[in-house]
Design goal:
This protein is mostly helical. The protein is built from five helices and no strands. The chain has a domain of about 110 residues. Helix 1 packs across helix 2.
Length: about 160
């Protein structure tokens, strides 16, 4: 006489409960992945839109660009001087770093700010739009404004 082993019931209702849990688990996992991807796109759009706005502001106000980079260069020069005084770097290295910082400042001041603004704003509109966010709407408005001003960066 064979007896039935003790354990979970093999009734049809018991198997359905496990399948239901699995389905809900997969749905929750899929929703989490979708939410993370959505949040990532929104944050990337925000970052690109703000960079585009910064270049657009510098297009309108070149003196602000120069003041910003002058302030940055002064801060770096002060940092290099502190490093020299503390003995972390030699005078030759301080000179090299300062020369590189000045070169970077001149490169940025000579760059086409409308072109950078257009590139950042178009990346929001074309690449980071779905899902639609306030950042993509801001980028669209700024891009239209840039085109109407005739400074679309296509020189």
């Amino acid at each position: 006489m064979l007896s039935r082993p003790a354990g979970p019931s093999l009734a049809p209702g018991a198997r359905r409960g496990g399948l239901r849990r699995l389905t809900w688990g997969l749905a929750a996992g899929l929703a989490a992945v979708y939410g993370i991807a959505w949040g990532d796109l929104i944050l990337r759009a925000r970052s690109a839109a703000l960079k585009g706005q910064r270049h657009l502001d510098w297009t309108r106000n070149p003196a602000g660009l120069q003041a910003s980079w002058d302030q940055r260069l002064a801060g770096e020069a002060e940092s290099f001087e502190r490093d020299l005084q503390s003995g972390r770097i030699a005078a030759v290295e301080r000179g090299r770093r300062l020369l590189l910082a000045r070169w970077e400042r001149e490169r940025v001041l000579g760059a086409s700010q409308p072109r950078y603004a257009r590139a950042w704003l178009e990346s929001v509109v074309e690449l980071l739009t779905p899902p639609e966010s306030r950042w993509s709407a801001l980028a669209r408005r700024s891009l239209d404004e840039l085109r109407q001003a005739g400074q679309d960066g296509l020189e």
